[in-house]
Specification:
It is a single chain. This protein is an all-beta fold and 219 residues long. It has 2 domains: 5-123, Immunoglobulin-like, CATH 2.60.40.10; 130-211, Immunoglobulins (Immunoglobulin-like, Sandwich), CATH 2.60.40.10. 2% of the residues lie in helices and 50% in strands. The chain contains 1 helix and 17 strands. It has one helix at 208-211, and strands at residues 5-8, 23-29, 34-36, 48-53, 56-64, 67-72, 82-84, 91-93, 102-109, 113-123, 130-133, 142-151, 154-160, 163-170, 174-183, 191-196, 201-205. The protein has a 7-stranded mixed beta sheet with strand order 1-2-10-9-4-5-6, with no helix packed on it. The chain has a 4-stranded antiparallel beta sheet with strand order 14-13-16-17, with no helix packed on it. The radius of gyration is 24 Å and the shape is rod-shaped.
Length: 219
């Protein structure tokens, strides 16, 4: 599947043998693939590269007596989802899910012991916002609701042109998220509702003449 992720990180030369305690943040959409890169350009004899998730080794690769050996965890969360680069030891997680979010640690046992830490955030696909007329409102103007269901770690916003009018955010999974807006029936401005997370956004444009029709029982 198409690879899409966001990296915010520091630079480190491959041959220096340096080690760091900085954390590299990685954001990826669910069902995509992501590669966690080592700072190694080539695995050498007696190098041992380990990838740790939680307290368990989930993958490792080494060269001993010119023989390359690899190991992958039997943990069901990672079964058939991991792939090691046999040149660099970089780890690819395929068809990633929210079960794979968390902290990954790279440990390299070579001439100098080196390590690197990744914090991986996995976001669910975004739905297109739903625009509805709020007929329960007693307002003389057109009352609208922009809604999204079963979403988490998102922001829902109303825009007038390019100007932000209002927004609401949720950090955990929410059954329903909605944001109201009132417009005049003859309003000619452009309005849109946007749902976004740190990676993507979905936009629904408001058609006032189509949506702002009299509700049942109203003239």
């Amino acid at each position: 599947m198409f690879l899409l992720f966001c990296l915010c990180w520091w630079t480190l030369t491959a041959e220096s043998g340096s080690k760091t305690n900085e954390i590299q943040s990685v954001s990826v959409m669910e069902e995509d693939s992501v590669t966690l890169h080592t700072f190694v350009t080539k695995i050498h004899e007696d190098d041992d590269i380990q990838w740790i998730f939680g307290a368990k080794i989930i993958a490792k690769i080494s060269i001993e007596k010119q023989n390359l050996s690899t190991f992958y965890s039997l943990d069901e969360r990672f079964r058939d989802r991991l792939k090691l680069d046999d040149q660099t030891g970089s780890l690819t997680i395929m068809n990633i899910s929210t079960l794979h979010a968390g902290v990954y640690q790279l440990k390299i046992n070579a001439a100098k012991l080196s390590s690197k830490t990744f914090s991986v955030s996995v976001y669910s696909p975004l739905p297109t916002p739903d625009l509805t007329r709020d007929c329960a409102s007693s307002s003389s103007s057109c009352s609208l609701l922009c809604s999204a269901v079963n979403v988490g770690h998102v922001t829902l916003s109303w825009y007038k042109g390019n100007s932000l009018l209002s927004s609401i955010s949720v950090s955990d999974l929410s059954i329903s998220l909605s944001l109201p807006l009132e417009v005049e029936y003859q309003d000619k401005n452009t309005y849109s509702c946007v749902i976004n997370n740190p990676i993507r956004n979905q936009t629904k444009h408001l058609n006032i003449s189509q949506l702002c029709q009299p509700c049942s029982g109203q003239s």
